[in-house]
Specification:
Blueprint: E1 2-4, E2 8-10, H1 14-22, E3 35-42, E4 45-50, E5 56-64, E6 68-73, E7 80-90, E8 93-102, H2 106-125
Antiparallel strand pairs: 1-8, 2-8, 3-4, 4-5, 5-6, 6-7, 7-8
């Protein structure tokens, strides 16, 4: 299952946004209002929970300077990645799009597609908070 957030433009440089997204603690600022838990485990890992959803632990898997950050599920039970693609349009403007890619059976995919689409949309919309 592959989902994409709408592309958002943030009035910051790609370097600034990359540095902010590289610090997992900053993802708390991007979370939806219905967050029930956010805990930084270490510099590359955090766990969060939304009301009515299971808690998810994310680990920073890959970082390509000023262009991409990949977070992945720490658990192999629900294998997925969340990728932030950064594209600097001017010195003070960056386009950001989030991609969610996961391997789920048809039933699971049907159940989580809506909530995950809304979740990554919210993360993208909150990028200006960094």
């Amino acid at each position: 299952m592959n989902l994409e957030s709408p592309k958002v433009t943030v009035q910051k440089s790609a370097e600034y946004m990359f540095n902010e997204l590289s610090q997992v603690k900053n993802f708390e600022k991007l979370m939806p209002e219905n967050i029930a838990k956010f805990e930084v485990i270490d510099e590359n890992c955090f766990e969060f929970g939304l009301k009515g959803m299971p808690e998810i632990k994310l680990v920073k898997k890959e970082a390509v300077a000023n262009s991409k950050i990949v977070l992945g599920a720490a658990s192999s039970k629900l294998p997925f990645t969340l990728t932030a693609n950064l594209n600097e349009t001017t010195a003070d403007s960056t386009d950001i799009q989030l991609n969610f890619d996961g391997e789920f059976n048809a039933m699971m995919a049907m159940m989580i597609k809506g909530p995950i689409s809304k979740f990554i949309e919210t993360l993208a919309e909150n990028m200006h908070k960094l």
